[in-house]
């Protein structure tokens, strides 16, 4: 056994040489950042409800996520730790004793666990090894009114367009391999979640979404009602991308005209996916405030992510990579802040993106960005 200290808890897991689904009990140290963000998100959500809450960790592994929720989040009165692996169940029970907490431990398939507990939990956390797709119908059916549904996907190669068929098969959506493919993948995951919820007359808004390391993570606020579901579905559409000139645009519903308005080339379509906001500024602000009261090993990285995500609120889907545009123009890339400053002076909204350090989100088109870049080069010559 090896001892791990994370946040305010200490656990023991069987020694393993490589992180994989074949490990005796699954524990991924790289996902500590994910769990740090989750602790802040669940705490911020508990503050919204302003009462004691119950949380379900559907793929508990070592039990560390459920244990951290019980130890670190104020107001969590009940946490369920479920895993189908019998060794994991023993590990969860052992680690619970180490930290003097008592989660509700169960050994079931995640879908069966969720179906057997409809409307019970204020927070449902779906964090599998791979795709969450097979479990989303059960999660949507089980989610109660005014609950939080947190979902992780690690099958990013499909969501980002490296492998198209798996994405079509799992998420019923077509990805595109563009410079903003990780945002497209996030939007496919969000859209898939929203459409599953709508099937049960439930609407969704997204409080935080991020693509980090090898995974994507979304936090959906679930509200019951056919009208809310209908309003949610208005945010489902497609992103059209021109690989010739890098222009992209989004359309609600099914796209009819795929001809690029700038160069006339045929545009490729990604979707269906979520076109609405992926973040809520007030919620993220509450998370940042909660970070001061938590003992997080990754707090500096977490705050950096949250600050950047706030800047993305209200910005159009997709982004432009300044280096990609400069490569098309055949010029060297000027400082990113100079490009952003030029766009701001021209009256456009502009922000960084957490997904790529050379990317900018803006309501300007690619032609306007090109003009700013060339003006910057002209002022230097």
From TrEMBL:
| Superkingdom as given in the UniProt entry | Archaea
Q: Which reaction does it catalyse?
A: guanosine(26) in tRNA + 2 S-adenosyl-L-methionine = N(2)-dimethylguanosine(26) in tRNA + 2 S-adenosyl-L-homocysteine + 2 H(+)
Q: Determine if Transferase is one of this entry's keywords.
A: yes
Q: Where does Zn(2+) bind?
A: 242, 245, 260, 263
Family, as annotated: Belongs to the class I-like SAM-binding methyltransferase superfamily. Trm1 family.
Q: Which NCBIfam families match?
A: TRM1
How is this protein named in the record?
tRNA (guanine(26)-N(2))-dimethyltransferase
């Amino acid at each position: 056994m090896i001892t791990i200290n994370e946040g305010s808890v200490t656990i023991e897991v069987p020694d393993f040489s490589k992180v994989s689904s074949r490990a005796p009990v699954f524990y991924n140290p790289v996902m500590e950042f994910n769990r740090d963000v989750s602790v802040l998100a669940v705490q911020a959500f508990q503050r919204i409800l302003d009462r004691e809450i119950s949380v379900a960790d559907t793929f508990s592994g070592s039990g560390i996520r459920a244990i951290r929720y019980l130890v670190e989040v104020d107001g969590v009165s009940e946490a369920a730790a479920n895993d189908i692996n019998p060794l994991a169940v023993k590990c969860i029970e052992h680690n619970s004793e180490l930290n003097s907490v008592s989660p509700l431990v169960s050994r079931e398939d995640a879908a069966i666990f969720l179906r057997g507990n409809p409307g019970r939990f204020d927070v449902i956390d779906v964090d599998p090894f791979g795709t969450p797709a097979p479990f989303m119908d059960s999660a949507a059916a089980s989610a109660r009114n005014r609950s939080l549904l947190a979902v992780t996907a690690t099958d990013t190669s499909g969501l980002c367009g490296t492998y198209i068929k798996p994405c079509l098969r799992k998420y019923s959506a077509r990805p595109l391999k563009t410079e903003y493919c990780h945002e497209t993948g996030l939007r496919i995951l969000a859209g898939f979640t929203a459409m599953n919820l709508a099937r049960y007359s439930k609407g969704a808004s997204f409080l935080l979404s991020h693509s980090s390391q090898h995974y994507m993570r979304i936090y959906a606020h679930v509200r019951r009602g056919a009208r809310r579901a209908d309003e949610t579905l208005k945010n489902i559409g497609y992103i059209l991308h021109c690989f010739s000139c890098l222009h992209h645009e989004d359309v609600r519903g099914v796209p009819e005209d795929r001809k690029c308005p700038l160069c006339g080339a045929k545009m490729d379509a990604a979707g269906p996916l979520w076109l609405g906001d992926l973040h809520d500024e007030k919620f993220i602000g509450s998370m940042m405030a909660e970070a001061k009261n938590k003992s997080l090993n990754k707090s500096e990285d977490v705050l950096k992510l949250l600050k950047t995500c706030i800047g993305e609120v209200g910005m159009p889907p997709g982004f432009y990579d300044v280096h990609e545009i400069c490569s098309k123009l055949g010029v060297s890339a000027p400082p990113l802040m100079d490009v952003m400053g030029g766009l701001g002076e021209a009256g456009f909204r502009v922000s960084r993106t957490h997904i790529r350090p050379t990317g900018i989100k803006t309501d300007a088109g690619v032609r306007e960005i090109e003009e700013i870049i060339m003006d910057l080069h002209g002022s230097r010559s």
